[in-house]
Amino acid sequence: MKISPFQVKEAKWWAGMTTDTHLAALYEEKPQMATKVVSRMLEATFGPSLETMLNKLPSQTYETDNDLYWKLQGSFERNIALVEAYWGGTLINSGTTGVGANHTEIELVFAEKWFEEGMVIVGEKNEVYPLFITKIETEGSLYRHYCILQYASSDGMPGSELVSNKLFSLDYSPVERTLSVDGTGTRHSSPIEMRSSFTTIRKREKVPGNMVSRPVQAFFRNPITGKVENVWTEYLDWKLEQELLLEKNRAMFFGRTNRDEYGRTHMTGKSGNEIYVGPGIREQMEVSNTMYYSKFSLRMLETFLFDISEGTLNKSERNFVIKTGERGADLIHKAIKADASGWMPLRDTSSMYNTTSSFANNARGYGFQFTEFLASNGIKVTVDIDPMYGDTTRNKLRHPDGGLAESYRMDIFDIGTPDAPNIQKAYVKGMEDRLRYEIGMRSPWDAKTSNIIGNSEDSYVIHRMCQFGVMVLDPQRTASFIPNILAA
């Protein structure tokens, strides 16, 4: 495939063991090189963006590779839906008026016994119509609560506040001033149990003995060290690490559990034993806050974040990271810029800079990109472009507005703090990161190797292996903002 009329050779692809025949086919001609660095065209170099983020938080190490379990404590504060209500023996409907006037008894029927005698409960208009429970009777699977309005009123309350499915909650439990004898009990909720499991991945590369330290005509710049390499095995070491890191990041982020409803896996490896794949971050997030959008707006995003934060997160905890692609980052930038256009100063000198031009003596440039913004009520949002969203190999679906549909997706993480992480990696002790060499007649370090070999073949094999899991401890503190085109 040609990408330019000035290109004299096309890229070639291969997988598996590399021999000198491959290098001869690739570099048999020796034209004068304009640069010693081969351009890695059409190949995205994925850095450890997800793992870098998670490395800022503590990880958990476990003694075995058994499944991971943790408990998420639910709130004891909850709403109970009204089944039906009666006043004076008559079913209340939305047109009933004067309900409970002058402290006349109201009967509320609930499907569970969450409240007790002596409690004040409130509905939607919680400060206007508080109800005091005087007695509770069991009727089969239902519970009839006899109540009176807390304050004297000849007007009572409208029946529209007491129709089926209206929600009620406990407010407080008042008692008499003199010689009170009892109070109400406490409310409890059992913890929700969450489960994840470890994923094991391996990579290997076999190197023929005559490829050890073999120089190549074209050179490769190691993007990690910045060093220009002209030895094939040095490049190969880096390439193996790059692919392992890419696969590890994909498994942590996109991994889907391969277990059925009975916990069984139907995948087996070459050994005949079962393969287990743990759920990635996205799969664990799916049970929480997901919104699909067709037209993006900053107000929509802010409302979404308010819904996550309100009543659940302290002001100091409302620091969110939005991982997205370049298209999503551009949408956020333009939305903030449009929203801020009314109050931004006309002379934003910090956005101006010196530049050079062939046709101007005093050339100036102007520009910026919003990557962070503060919303009201303590919400802080940081935008992080993750190259996995722009991976043109993994992501095939195009967006009508241009680019990849995945690049418009925004995953909102509340990653927590080092003291209280919400998303964290997990490892099996001793299996965090394994590097092993299988030595034949030759090895990468022949001058320092003993005369003992593992097999008689003139080669060596590099083995890389890691076993890891990822836990989203509270999915309700995460969210996904997804373009409609990606809806299932």
Shape: elongated
The chain-level structural class is alpha+beta
Oligomer: single chain
Secondary structure tally: strands: 24
Number of helices: 6
Read across the widest sheet, the strand sequence of neighbours is 3-5-8-7-6-9
What would you report as the Rg, rounded to the nearest angstrom? 32 Å
Q: Roughly what fraction of the amino acids lie in strands?
A: 25-35%
Description:
The chain has helices at 20-27, 49-55, 232-254, 281-285, 298-309, 326-340; strands spanning 60-62, 68-72, 80-87, 90-91, 106-110, 120-122, 131-139, 142-149, 167-172, 192-196, 199-208, 215-221, 228-231, 289-293, 319-324, 352-354, 364-366, 372-374, 380-385, 410-413, 423-428, 434-439, 459-472, 479-483. The protein has three domains: 20-70 and 195-279 and 426-471, no CATH class; 80-172, Thrombin, subunit H (Beta Barrel); 294-343 and 363-425 and 473-486, no CATH class. It contains six helices and 24 strands. The chain has a six-stranded antiparallel β-barrel with strand order 3-5-8-7-6-9. The chain has 488 residues and is of the alpha+beta class. Helix content is 14%, strand content 28%. The protein starts with 19 loop residues before the first helix and ends in a 5-residue tail after the last strand.
Notable characteristics:
488 residues; alpha+beta; 3 domains; 6 helices; 14% helix; elongated
